[in-house]
Amino acid sequence: LATPGSGFTAAEQWKGVFEDIDVHVVDMPGHQVKVKTDGVSDVYVTRNEIAVDGQSGWHTHPGPSLIIVTVGEIMAYDSDDPTCTPTLYTTGEGFVDEGGGHVHLLRNESGAPAETVAIQFLPKDASRRIDMPDPGNCSF
After folding, report:
1. How many whole angstroms separate alpha carbon 99 and alpha carbon 122?
2. Mean of the per-residue pLDDT values for the chain?
3. Confidence class of residue 124 from pLDDT cuts 50, 70 and 90?
4. To pair with 106 at 20 to 30 A between CA atoms, which of 9, 16, 92, 136?
């Protein structure tokens, strides 16, 4: 029932294993960062190439990802959006995929190649990606 990607290549660039992470920076006026994990995490940096008309297939991750569009533009679709309205992200923009069952699909509808880099915080030894069935909310 999974929906495999097409024209989508994910290449793991780096992986690091981290014990508990507990970082909270508050010293910068108007800016604060907090990252906290409980337990050992695998942190991945993955480069994704999305060909013209390519797509990732519906999937989720067992933890959050920070996604940066490094080339071109992509459309992000959420499985729980009954209107199937995508969000456009272009070169230099980033977004957070919260993971943990958030099912989504990335498509390149731009007519030119697109690439993203994902930084993922996952439980140690968990599968990096979990393929999911088509939720039926989009016509493609």
Report:
1. 9
2. 96
3. very high
4. 16
